[in-house]
Amino acid sequence: MNHDLLTLQPDRPPIITSEIEVIRFYHDTDAKAAVQEMIAGTYVLVEEFYSNGLEILAELKRTLLVYYTDKKFQGQRDFRSAFREASHRLLVEVKGHKLVVKKAPVIGWLKVLYPEIADFYVSFPEIQGMNSAWQWYQKGIEVKTLGITLHPFYGAYFPTRFEHLTLFDRWLKKYVGSKEKAIEIGVGSGILSFQLIQNGFKTIFASDTNKNAIIGVAQECKRLDYEANITLNHGDLFENCDVKADVIVFNPPWLLAKHSLEEGLDKAIYYEKELFPRFFEQAQKHTLHVMGK
C-alpha cells in the first residue's frame, strides 16, 4: 500500500459555512414563486420536512420544461445544465452532521467527508447523491465472481452489471503466464485488481485519477487483507509507475465526451479522444511482452 495515501483528501460536495440570505421554504410556501427565485439566483432553504425539497425540485423541473422544449441532444443538455444550476440553490441545513429537517435520511457521509465541521448548508441535490451513495456503501454490492461484498466509497465508480467480470474470470482461469506483477489502470472500486489477486497475481500497481476511488480501494484492501498485494496511485494512466508488468488491465470509460470532463465519476463514463492513443503509447513502456496482453 502506498503510504502517501494517508494525506489524500477525498473530493466532496461544496458546502456553505457562513450565514447567507435565503428564502425559507415551508409546506405552505408557494412552490412556483420559490422556483422563480432560484432561477433568478436566490438561495432557498428547505424547512420542516425533507419531502419539501423533493416538491420544489419537481416544480423546478416542470417550470424549466416549459422553456426547454428541444428534445435533441443540445436542447436536453441545455435543460440539464439549467436544472443543475438552479437546483443547487436549493439548500438544506446540517447540524451535528445530521440533516435538520424532519423525516430525513441518516447519511454517514456528512461526518466521514466533513470531520472538521459539523454545521453547514449543502445543496439538496448533493444530499440526494450522498444519500444514494450511503445506501450503496452500507448495503454493499455482492460480487459473486469474487465471492465477496464490496462497499464503494462516495464518488467512486462501481458496476451494476457483471458480465465483463465473468469473462475476465474465465480468461484468468486459462492464463498460464507469469503472475508476478500486474497493472490496473482506472481501479474504480477495485474489482479487477481483487480478481487478479484471487487468481494468484502477487503484486499489483493500481492507478486512478479519482481520489475517492483510491481512498475507497485502500479501505477495502485493509478490510480484505489485500494491502500487501496492491500499490495504489492517484494519477493519470501510468503516472508515477515504474513497474513493468506481465498483465495490464484497463476497463475504460465507454462514451466519447462532447463536453469538458470533471474529475471523479465523469471520467469513469466519458473519455476524451486522446485517451486510447495515450494509453497504448504508455502501455508499451510498462509491459514485459513485445505486444503486451
From TrEMBL:
It comes from the Bacteria. Its EC number is 2.1.1.297. Pfam families: PrmA (PF06325). Keywords: Methyltransferase, Transferase. Coiled coil: none annotated. The keyword Transferase applies. GO terms for biological process: methylation. One of its GO terms (molecular function) is nucleic acid binding. The keyword Transferase applies. PROSITE patterns: N6_MTASE. This is Methyltransferase.
